[in-house]
């Protein structure tokens, strides 16, 4: 049996919305993603508050999330939706 399908593993990373660090403990990653930061997350962002005509910027925290995804792909020399050969 010749292997025709050679799926590629992809790692998709994303970050949650920036919020006050004290509120970030309970922040969850989207469905299917795994949280790779702990506690209040990473303090590497700013969030904004609008008060009447002013916009104030504050340092905040966010979590980093990742998800493993398998992308279907044919091995070299094969192509098409069924990975057919020559």
From TrEMBL:
Cellular compartment(s): Membrane
Keywords tagged on the record: Disulfide bond, Glycoprotein, Membrane
GO CC terms of this entry: membrane
GO MF: low-density lipoprotein particle binding; low-density lipoprotein particle receptor activity
Keyword Membrane: yes
Chief site of localization: membrane
Keyword Glycosyltransferase annotated: no
Protein name (record): STAB2 protein
Organism name: Acrocephalus arundinaceus
């Amino acid at each position: 049996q010749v292997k025709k399908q050679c799926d590629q593993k992809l790692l998709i990373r994303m970050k949650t919305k920036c919020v006050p660090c004290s509120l970030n403990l309970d922040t969850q990653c989207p469905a299917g993603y795994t949280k790779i930061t702990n506690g209040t997350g990473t303090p590497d962002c700013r969030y904004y508050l609008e008060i009447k005509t002013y916009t104030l910027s504050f340092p905040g925290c966010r979590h980093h999330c990742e998800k493993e995804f398998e992308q279907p792909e044919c091995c070299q020399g094969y192509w098409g939706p069924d990975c057919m050969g020559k």
